[in-house]
Fold:
Amino acid sequence: MTKTFTENKLFQRITFAHHALSIGEYERCRFDTCIFSTTDLSGINFVECEFTNCDLSLAKVTNTVFREVIFTGCKLLGVHFDESNKFSFSAAFDHCQLKLAAFYTMNLKNIQFTECNLQEVDFSDANLTGVRFDHCDLSGAIFKNSVLERSDFRTAYNYSINPEMNRMKKAKFSMAGLAGLLDKYKIEIE
Structure:
Protein backbone atom coordinates (compact mmCIF):
# COMPACT_ATOMS: atom_id res chain seq x y z
CA MET A 1 0.00 0.00 0.00
CA THR A 2 1.38 3.40 -1.01
CA LYS A 3 1.48 5.99 1.74
CA THR A 4 0.78 9.60 0.88
CA PHE A 5 2.72 12.65 2.03
CA THR A 6 0.68 15.83 2.37
CA GLU A 7 2.15 19.13 3.48
CA ASN A 8 0.70 22.59 4.26
CA LYS A 9 -2.83 21.72 3.15
CA LEU A 10 -6.12 23.04 4.52
CA PHE A 11 -8.92 20.50 4.93
CA GLN A 12 -12.17 22.32 5.59
CA ARG A 13 -15.69 21.09 6.34
CA ILE A 14 -15.02 17.51 5.26
CA THR A 15 -16.81 14.50 6.71
CA PHE A 16 -14.15 11.80 6.68
CA ALA A 17 -16.69 9.05 7.23
CA HIS A 18 -17.64 9.68 3.58
CA HIS A 19 -14.18 10.59 2.24
CA ALA A 20 -11.52 8.48 3.97
CA LEU A 21 -8.28 10.19 4.85
CA SER A 22 -5.46 8.39 3.05
CA ILE A 23 -2.92 6.57 5.20
CA GLY A 24 0.30 8.53 5.21
CA GLU A 25 1.95 11.57 6.75
CA TYR A 26 0.29 14.95 7.15
CA GLU A 27 2.74 17.70 8.01
CA ARG A 28 1.76 21.26 8.95
CA CYS A 29 -1.80 20.63 7.72
CA ARG A 30 -4.89 22.34 9.11
CA PHE A 31 -8.19 20.55 9.66
CA ASP A 32 -11.03 23.05 10.18
CA THR A 33 -14.58 21.99 11.10
CA CYS A 34 -14.01 18.42 9.90
CA ILE A 35 -15.80 15.33 11.15
CA PHE A 36 -13.68 12.28 12.00
CA SER A 37 -16.25 10.78 14.37
CA THR A 38 -15.84 6.96 14.49
CA THR A 39 -13.30 7.21 11.65
CA ASP A 40 -10.31 4.86 11.56
CA LEU A 41 -7.17 7.03 11.68
CA SER A 42 -4.89 4.11 12.54
CA GLY A 43 -1.33 4.34 11.25
CA ILE A 44 -1.63 7.95 10.09
CA ASN A 45 1.09 10.46 11.08
CA PHE A 46 0.03 13.98 12.05
CA VAL A 47 3.07 16.23 12.48
CA GLU A 48 2.72 19.91 13.46
CA CYS A 49 -0.96 19.81 12.46
CA GLU A 50 -3.85 21.88 13.79
CA PHE A 51 -7.37 20.60 14.37
CA THR A 52 -9.91 23.39 14.90
CA ASN A 53 -13.60 22.80 15.71
CA CYS A 54 -13.32 19.17 14.58
CA ASP A 55 -15.24 16.15 15.88
CA LEU A 56 -12.95 13.17 16.49
CA SER A 57 -15.28 11.41 18.94
CA LEU A 58 -14.64 7.67 19.11
CA ALA A 59 -12.07 7.90 16.30
CA LYS A 60 -9.79 4.86 16.18
CA VAL A 61 -6.16 5.97 16.65
CA THR A 62 -4.20 2.71 16.86
CA ASN A 63 -0.53 3.53 16.24
CA THR A 64 -1.46 7.02 15.03
CA VAL A 65 1.31 9.60 15.44
CA PHE A 66 0.37 12.93 17.04
CA ARG A 67 3.56 15.02 17.13
CA GLU A 68 3.30 18.73 18.02
CA VAL A 69 -0.44 18.72 17.28
CA ILE A 70 -2.81 21.44 18.47
CA PHE A 71 -6.48 20.70 19.13
CA THR A 72 -8.70 23.79 19.54
CA GLY A 73 -12.44 23.62 20.19
CA CYS A 74 -12.54 19.93 19.28
CA LYS A 75 -14.76 17.07 20.44
CA LEU A 76 -12.55 14.10 21.33
CA LEU A 77 -15.08 12.07 23.32
CA GLY A 78 -13.91 8.55 24.12
CA VAL A 79 -10.69 8.76 22.09
CA HIS A 80 -8.15 6.18 23.29
CA PHE A 81 -4.95 8.16 22.90
CA ASP A 82 -3.33 5.32 24.86
CA GLU A 83 -3.55 3.25 21.66
CA SER A 84 -1.77 5.89 19.58
CA ASN A 85 1.98 5.94 19.01
CA LYS A 86 3.21 6.74 22.52
CA PHE A 87 6.83 7.30 21.52
CA SER A 88 6.32 10.67 19.86
CA PHE A 89 3.07 11.95 21.39
CA SER A 90 3.00 15.70 21.94
CA ALA A 91 -0.12 17.83 21.79
CA ALA A 92 -1.93 20.81 23.27
CA PHE A 93 -5.65 20.92 23.99
CA ASP A 94 -7.55 24.22 24.13
CA HIS A 95 -11.33 24.42 24.83
CA CYS A 96 -11.76 20.72 23.97
CA GLN A 97 -14.29 18.09 25.05
CA LEU A 98 -12.26 15.02 26.08
CA LYS A 99 -14.86 13.25 28.23
CA LEU A 100 -14.12 9.50 28.59
CA ALA A 101 -10.81 9.78 26.69
CA ALA A 102 -7.90 7.58 27.77
CA PHE A 103 -4.24 8.49 28.31
CA TYR A 104 -3.39 5.29 30.22
CA THR A 105 0.41 4.79 30.61
CA MET A 106 1.23 7.77 28.38
CA ASN A 107 4.07 10.27 28.70
CA LEU A 108 2.30 13.63 28.75
CA LYS A 109 5.15 15.69 30.22
CA ASN A 110 4.54 19.45 30.00
CA ILE A 111 1.34 19.17 27.95
CA GLN A 112 -1.21 21.92 28.46
CA PHE A 113 -4.95 21.46 28.80
CA THR A 114 -6.75 24.83 28.68
CA GLU A 115 -10.45 25.09 29.58
CA CYS A 116 -11.10 21.46 28.69
CA ASN A 117 -13.79 19.04 29.82
CA LEU A 118 -11.73 16.12 31.15
CA GLN A 119 -14.58 14.33 32.90
CA GLU A 120 -13.92 10.63 33.46
CA VAL A 121 -10.62 10.74 31.55
CA ASP A 122 -8.23 7.90 32.44
CA PHE A 123 -4.79 9.20 33.44
CA SER A 124 -3.79 5.95 35.21
CA ASP A 125 -0.07 5.16 35.17
CA ALA A 126 0.56 8.28 33.04
CA ASN A 127 3.51 10.63 33.41
CA LEU A 128 1.90 14.06 33.89
CA THR A 129 5.05 15.84 35.07
CA GLY A 130 4.68 19.57 34.53
CA VAL A 131 1.21 19.29 32.97
CA ARG A 132 -0.97 22.37 33.36
CA PHE A 133 -4.71 21.89 33.85
CA ASP A 134 -5.86 25.47 33.26
CA HIS A 135 -9.57 25.89 34.18
CA CYS A 136 -10.33 22.24 33.41
CA ASP A 137 -13.20 20.11 34.74
CA LEU A 138 -11.68 16.88 36.08
CA SER A 139 -14.87 15.36 37.52
CA GLY A 140 -14.46 11.59 37.68
CA ALA A 141 -10.98 11.71 36.10
CA ILE A 142 -8.85 8.74 37.15
CA PHE A 143 -5.43 9.39 38.66
CA LYS A 144 -3.93 6.10 39.82
CA ASN A 145 -0.17 5.48 39.96
CA SER A 146 0.21 8.72 38.00
CA VAL A 147 3.26 10.98 38.13
CA LEU A 148 1.89 14.43 38.95
CA GLU A 149 5.17 16.09 39.93
CA ARG A 150 5.21 19.85 39.21
CA SER A 151 1.71 19.59 37.65
CA ASP A 152 -0.49 22.66 38.03
CA PHE A 153 -4.03 22.12 39.30
CA ARG A 154 -4.50 25.63 40.76
CA THR A 155 -7.41 26.56 38.47
CA ALA A 156 -8.69 23.02 37.81
CA TYR A 157 -11.85 21.87 39.55
CA ASN A 158 -13.92 18.79 40.49
CA TYR A 159 -10.87 16.54 40.81
CA SER A 160 -10.39 13.76 43.32
CA ILE A 161 -6.78 12.64 43.69
CA ASN A 162 -5.43 10.24 46.28
CA PRO A 163 -1.95 11.52 47.27
CA GLU A 164 -1.04 8.05 48.56
CA MET A 165 -1.54 6.49 45.12
CA ASN A 166 0.27 9.11 43.00
CA ARG A 167 3.66 10.83 42.93
CA MET A 168 2.92 14.49 43.60
CA LYS A 169 6.14 16.24 44.58
CA LYS A 170 5.86 20.01 43.96
CA ALA A 171 2.40 19.73 42.34
CA LYS A 172 0.45 22.98 42.67
CA PHE A 173 -3.07 23.26 44.08
CA SER A 174 -5.25 26.15 45.20
CA MET A 175 -6.63 26.32 48.75
CA ALA A 176 -10.14 25.85 47.30
CA GLY A 177 -9.05 22.63 45.59
CA LEU A 178 -7.55 20.93 48.63
CA ALA A 179 -10.83 19.12 49.29
CA GLY A 180 -10.15 17.09 46.12
CA LEU A 181 -7.07 15.66 47.83
CA LEU A 182 -8.97 14.62 50.95
CA ASP A 183 -12.01 12.89 49.36
CA LYS A 184 -10.90 9.42 50.36
CA TYR A 185 -11.14 10.36 54.03
CA LYS A 186 -14.87 11.27 53.77
CA ILE A 187 -14.37 14.34 55.92
CA GLU A 188 -16.45 17.51 55.74
CA ILE A 189 -14.62 20.72 54.90
CA GLU A 190 -16.34 24.09 55.34
Observations:
- Helices lie at 179-182.
- The chain has two domains: 1-102, 106-183.
